[in-house]
Structures are given as C-alpha cells and as structure tokens.
Amino acid sequence: DQQVKQNSPSLSVQEGRISILNCDYTNSMFDYFLWYKKYPAEGPTFLISISSIKDKNEDGRFTVFLNKSAKHLSLHIVPSQPGDSAVYFCAAISNSGYALNFGKGTSLLVTP
Amino acid sequence: ETGVTQTPRHLVMGMTNKKSLKCEQHLGHNAMYWYKQSAKKPLELMFVYSLEERVENNSVPSRFSPECPNSSHLFLHLHTLQPEDSALYLCASSQGQGRYEQYFGPGTRLTVT
Questions:
Q1: Among A95, A2, A102, A96, residue whose Cα is nearest residue A43
Q2: 20 to 30 Å CA-CA from B57: which of A42, A93, B32, B89?
C-alpha cells in the first residue's frame, strides 16, 4: 500500500505565477519530508526538506509547508519559471529508517 | 567527478545474459542505495548498504545481487532477468540513515529483451 501519495499527475502554471504541488502521507512514523525534482534522463535532484518539528521551510523561491495533523505537505514555487518544468517527487522517511518512500510524482509545466 | 555517477547509462540485455551496473559516490557518504523505477510506479527501494554492510533487502528476487566493496562503490549484478525487470535503476548515497538527504545518480535505463 502506498504510504506517500501525490494525487495530481500533472500541473500547468503560467510563468510568474505560483505553483503549488501537494502530497499526502499515511504513516505517522514519518518525521522527515523531502522534495525532489527530476528532469528526463537524469536522476532525482534534492530540492528542499522539512522536519516534523517545523511547519514551514523556505529556500529562495521554494517553500515547503507541513500540516502534521492532516498528514499533508505542499511545495510552493513562486514565481514559477519555465526552467522549473520537471517532475516533482515528494518523499518521506522516519528517523530510524533507510528507505525514502516516494510518491508517484507530479509533472509541472510552466508556460511562458 | 562529483556527486554520484552510474555506468552504463543504458543497457540492453537478453534474458540469459549476465551484466553489472556500477555506482560510485564522491561525497564521502556512508550509506548507498539501489532503487528501481518502473513506468507508472513510484521509486522502490531495493537494497541499502551502510558502512559496506547490507542493512536492508526489500524482498528483491535473487536474480539481482548487490555488492559493496567499499563505501564509495556499489554494484548490482544481474543474471537471468525477465522482461518485466526493464526499468530505470537509480543509485543514491547519504551521510547516514534517517534524516539525511539522499543524492541520486543519473540512473541506468535497463531493457531486457
């Protein structure tokens, strides 16, 4: 059973606007969450992470929000740029674990 | 070389062949991973090595055999694969377990004919 879900397979946003990518998880043992970005023919690239003791983490244009009670996190990209077009994966892990549990990914297209 | 490298980038093999995938990390990390990404599926963890010891094996068929000779190198030996094993195989490394980012290589696109 999939423990990390990204329910939107794709998202299209205009350049300069905000992109919001969503992720839900089911395992309450997860306490560290990561977003990865993947271009075709490349491996996933780490983007930003958040610990369960925080509800927000910001890095430049990228902000991740965590709502533990809802078991939901989101990645905000603002302003969106055409170079942000890629597949974004949400991942979660527990402090004692080795395995990153990935969602299926959301394909973001930023149009000029 | 920097980061995590994988060779070959593409591999086509028959069901009776034996081949190996190679991964090398230049980050000084202690843990290395093999993941599999099949079409329409999330990345699935196959094996984890920490300090050159296998610490996790996610019910992977024995036709996949990992080897970690030192903390910088990881191999995946393949033999008598099935067409359904065709996938992108990704190697990753991290400083340790738990709350550490895992850094991925570019992957090997494997096709089994």
A1: A102
A2: A42
The predicted model gives B33-50 an average pLDDT of 90
Tell me the C-alpha distance between B41 and B90, whole Å: 14
CB A84 within 8 A of CB A77: yes
Beta-carbon separation of B102 and A46 below 8 A: yes
Give yes or no for a contact between B88 and B109, defined as CB atoms under 8 angstroms apart. yes
pLDDT value for B54: 84
Distance from CA of B98 to the nearest CA of A (A): 4
Please tell me the predicted confidence (pLDDT) of residue A73: 97
Out of B4, B55, B102, name the one closest to residue A100 (CB). B102
What secondary structure, in 3-state letters, does chain A show? CCCEECCCCEEEEECCCCEEEEEEECCCCCCEEEEEEECCCCCCEEEEEEECCCCEEEECCEEEEEECCCCEEEEEECCCCHHHCEEEEEEEECCCCCCCEECCCEEEEEEC
The chain A residue lying nearest B45, using CA atoms, is A99
Q: Which residue has the tokens 């299209």?
A: A12
Measure the CA–CA gap between A103 and A106, rounded to whole angstroms.
9
pLDDT of residue B98: 73
